[in-house]
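Checklist before submission:
- one chain only
- standard amino acids only
- sequence pasted in full

Submission:
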Amino acid sequence: QVQLVESGGGLVQPGGSLRLSCAASGFRFSSYAVSWYRQAPGKERELVATISTVGGVTQLAGSVKGRFTISRDNGKNTAYLQMNSLKPEDTAVYYCRAGPDWGRGTQVTVST
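Returned file contents:
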């Protein structure tokens, strides 16, 4: 059974940091690129970051470049999204995706 489970979300003040994790099981994780998406209330889901199968290529949305980093550890079947200098507009549910499969998301709230 394919599973993607996000964790690491929470409430953080502006300027703070969080690291999200996406734990995969039930498929050959290393064969798939992994992407992080986010969806804020009332907005469409947007692509935040993508990492290639062995991590050699990463892409970040313009709104998070210089603040977020995507990485993966294929030995642990886990992908990460390191988020620094968080802003209120980063508030959203964050989802990971590998191939056709999605996790259920983790809430990130940036607020005082």
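Reviewer check: The longest strand covers residues 18-25.
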